[in-house]
Amino acid sequence: MPGTGTWLVPGTGHVPSYPGDVEVSPERAFLAGLESRLAGGEPVAIEVSLVLLAGQEVELDPDELRAARRRAVQLLATGGDPRREPDPNGRAVTALAADLDAPAHRAALAEGLDSLGATVTGLQEVSARLELLAGDKELAWRWFACTLLAEELVGD
């Protein structure tokens, strides 16, 4: 697709503009699509996708997670509409982030963010947002908590 950056041959997972058909990971293809959407002027919270990918190895105790999510949903409800989109700087998200905070969790998230570096090479806006998250561990942790709360809201 002209002007959109990387594109794939449908059904192949290959980028045709490179000699020898370079294999493209599903993550790279997804993030390239977000980059294209941003280039088209669409507002996209890329941070959500980045921390979802990066946070796959963060191991949380299911009971602790369930209880922390329940408290965060109650905080959302006391602030108005419990179905509104979570804000990484909002009271419910910051409380959830604090409830689940542990050095091992943050280290796993940081490692996941670092591992995405090669995946986003050449994606200017996605790379900039990844760099921001990797450089600000607190912000990255709040975005991760935001995704956890959003999962709970979608699951209800």
- Write down the overall geometry: globular
Low-confidence stretches: 1-12, 14-21
Domain count: the total is: 1
Structural class: mainly alpha
Question: In total, how many beta strands?
Answer: 2
Main sheet specs: 2 strands, antiparallel
What characteristics describe this protein?
156 residues, mainly alpha, two-stranded antiparallel sheet, 7 helices, 3% strand, disordered N terminus
Care to give the gist of this entry?
The protein is 60% helix and 3% strand. The chain is mostly helical and 156 residues long. The longest helix is centred in the C-terminal third of the chain and has 19 residues.
Secondary structure blueprint with pairings:
Elements: E1 14-15, E2 22-23, H1 26-39, H2 46-54, H3 62-78, H4 91-100, H5 103-115, H6 124-135, H7 137-155
Antiparallel strand pairs: 1-2
Helix pairs in contact: 2-5, 2-7, 3-4, 3-7, 4-7, 6-7
Overview of the structural elements:
With 156 residues, this protein is mostly helical. The chain has one domain (45-155). Helices cover 60% and strands 3% of the residues. It is built from seven helices and two strands; from the N terminus they run E-E-H-H-H-H-H-H-H. It has helices spanning 26-39, 46-54, 62-78, 91-100, 103-115, 124-135, 137-155; strands at residues 14-15, 22-23. It has a two-stranded antiparallel sheet with strand order 1-2. A hairpin with a 6-residue loop joins strand 1 and strand 2. Helix 2 packs across helix 7, helix 3 packs antiparallel against helix 4 and helix 6 (124-135) crosses helix 7. The longest helix is centred in the last third of the chain and has 19 residues, at 137-155. It starts with 13 loop residues before the first strand and ends with a helix.
